[in-house]
Amino acid sequence: MPPRREWHAARAARDPLSPVASLLRTAQRALAPCRKRTACAALPTDTAFLAGSRAPAKTAHTLFRRLADPCNKFSPGSVQALASQAPIALRKPVNVRVTSLAHQIWSQVVDQGDMVVDATCGRGADTLWLANAVGPTGTVHAFDIQDEAIRSSRVMIEEAALPGGTGHVSFVHDSHANMQAHLPKDAAIMLTCFNLGYLPSGDKSLTTQAESTLAGLKAASETTAPGGLISIISYTHHPGGRREFEAVQDFASKLPPEMWLSSETHFRNRQVAPALFNIYRLPSR
Ligand SMILES: C[S@@+](CC[C@H](N)C(=O)[O-])C[C@H]1O[C@@H](n2cnc3c(N)ncnc32)[C@H](O)[C@@H]1O
Fold first, then answer.
1. Ligand 1 mean position to 146 CA, how many Å?
2. Cα(265)–Cα(180) distance, integer angstroms
3. Is 43 in the pocket of ligand 1 (CB under 6 A)?
4. Ligand 1, atom 12: closest residue by C-alpha
5. What is the SS3 assignment for 92?
6. Which of 215, 225, 258, 274 has the fewest Cβ atoms nearer than 10 Å?
């Protein structure tokens, strides 16, 4: 069995629909005449890894920027030119992951300069998405109860080399049940996202719990700005998951309809797919 990374690289090279496969080909062409091959060697393999894993284009942009600097191969203009191809590559396949669907919905609501909350930062994938979406003029408050989650999310953000730095992302090592104590008074939050369950590749016995999730949802409903969104990805296949899912369902169903619009989405032909709840606060009249 070839090592995982090589396996992804080989698969990505064969898969024309892979989201960043065209970036891989461009990178390989660009690197062909490079004399500093050792410094650049990681680029095609890492890009292939991203292509194989269907990572979002923004991750590929970040990788290009990070790898371009040490080898001085690309001018800022050529990095920009490479990066600008990613959205075109992304348009081809439909990414059926529920997180990808959630990000598409969030992008309808979140804008540069907004204040947003990641109620469960985990490994930081959603925090990074939010940090890019609100930009350096916005603010991301990212919560988690696990030290390990906060540490790996922080690394994710630092390594992303965000334009404008990381000063707009603040991490809070506390439960989202206490969210309001950490937010500015009268905060107007455009998005609060909850990706429930356990830390990926972490301790599976440490999961979100119905009671604290409900307290977090209540806090979110009190801080969401008109036109803002509360988004919840809820899993049912781990112990306590079904009870938590039903608590979220109950919360979403009982919100006053003159102020909120709530929806629940499932992939019908997947055995263990999570549910995606979106609770939209109607703009004030
Ligand atoms: C599915 S993971 C989140 C994934 C994350 N959004 C990402 O992009 O990687 C769920 C996280 O919720 C955290 N968590 C559990 N209970 C919590 C609570 N009461 N407040 C905040 N975070 C909590 C867990 O520690 C875990 O890291």
1. 8
2. 28
3. no
4. 120
5. coil
6. 258
